[in-house]
Amino acid sequence: MAREVCNSVSGVLCDYEEAGEELCKAYDLGEDLEDLLAWLGNINPVKGLNLLHNQVRDFDLRDISHQKPLSVLKAVLEMVVNLAGLSESDWRRLLKKA
Fold it and tell me: Residue 98 — pLDDT band, cuts 50, 70, 90?
């Protein structure tokens, strides 16, 4: 995923961990912030931003670094929930080439 998105989610882990974990629980993904951050680090940046744009239409991608970290996390969680139905092969296509 793009560096700005990862940095923002990482900022939640550092500065708003309790609120971030509660947000993760609210989306019922069964993952914590560290797992989510690791997953984001493995996503192809261009594909990840396209997915975020396509899955969360009201999220402004133009200036991610100036958005509140919890807002960025919420958009990422919405994207992940929307993608839950992807096949294994579709998930593999999202990952960076080794």
Answer: very low
